[in-house]
Design brief:
2 copies of one chain form a homodimer. By secondary structure, chain A is an all-alpha fold. Chain A has 9 helices and no strands. In chain A, helix 5 packs parallel to helix 8. Chain A is elongated. The termini of chain A are far apart. The interface between A and B is large, with 48 and 48 residues.
Chain lengths: ~200, ~200
């Protein structure tokens, strides 16, 4: 029952965060939302911060699974894999707005907490490495121009994060399909092989 | 004395936010930091949220001034003006980290507050319009390919926001000069005229 109950508490924490934010989050509210006693809750999580860290890990894992699932349908072409990654990430901003609540609430706390910051650094470094591998694949197979993988990954991740923020905060400005199209266009041109 | 004292309170609020975050912000701490009585503070600001809104307006105005100052030194070439904008924004992420604390803390609160969200929407819409005008200028004078100004602005703003996040959260990954270079490279290729 351990992992199931832990997962149930983490999902309840995400719902509480989405509803009221980290400022108003209490262990008591999460226990009620998860349908467990406060004793059980404290068995799994020492405090609010530990719970916040667990929500970041949960939404990051979920996002990774979505990207992997989308890429598994595209075959091996690096351009198609990059498009699938962009699309899966931007869709999360619209379909699972509570994920972006977790990111933003986590960032707010992490600015004042070294350990949370280290966790975020680990997530970003790993994400840039994954994207960097895709860029290197594309360069090796002649689909992309040769770009330094770490820099290219910072550009891809930056654009996807920045457009996700705009989709989250201002959903009337443009839709997710449109955002995916102009993101693909921008990244396609960025990575396109130079005309000889 | 009115505007001066108000400005002094807003700057004190930004310092308190940077030090402890919005969760731990109190009117009492801000009054002490600003060196005013709580009565004076309440004369200018009804509550924490009004103060948070004022900090967003203040850092946005400051950022606009930095961009305008940087662009005033480049002349009229749209490419140089875009480079100046990118550089000024990314530098703020490194030199004035408290500005990004304000953005992130504001976003966290705004997810649970309609009026704060409207303020953010207004700031983003205005920023996209300004960048859109620069893109339209570039297309008209033949420096950029014809890009829909609103979409192009979303891409530029998205990339600058996303890279600023990475500079803020993970300052060891790359420096501001390097970020400015690969951001210019990506936007230059995105807006470059197609080879006939």
């Amino acid at each position: 029952m351990g992992p199931v109950r832990r997962e149930q508490i983490v999902r309840a924490t995400i719902r509480c965060l989405a509803r009221e934010g980290y400022t108003r989050l209490t262990m008591k509210k999460v226990a009620r939302e998860a349908g467990v006693s406060q004793g059980i809750l404290h068995y799994y999580f020492a405090d609010k911060r530990t719970m916040l860290a667990a929500t970041l890990e949960a939404v990051t894992r979920d996002l990774d699974r979505r990207v992997a699932a989308a890429q598994s349908r595209t075959g091996r072409d690096p351009r198609a894999r990059l498009r699938a990654l962009v699309r899966a990430c931007l869709e999360v901003a619209v379909r699972r707005p509570e994920f972006w609540v977790v990111f933003v609430e986590f960032w707010g706390e992490m600015l004042h907490d070294r350990r949370l910051r280290e966790l975020n650094t680990a997530v970003y470094s790993r994400t840039r490495r994954l994207i960097g591998r895709l860029i290197a694949d594309g360069a090796r197979t002649g689909r992309f121009r040769p770009v330094d993988p770490a820099r290219g990954a910072a550009v891809v991740l930056g654009l996807v994060d920045g457009l996700s923020l705009q989709l989250t905060f201002d959903p009337d400005a443009f839709g997710v399909a449109e955002a995916a199209r102009f993101c693909d266009d921008a990244l396609g041109r960025y990575l396109a092989k130079e005309t000889p």
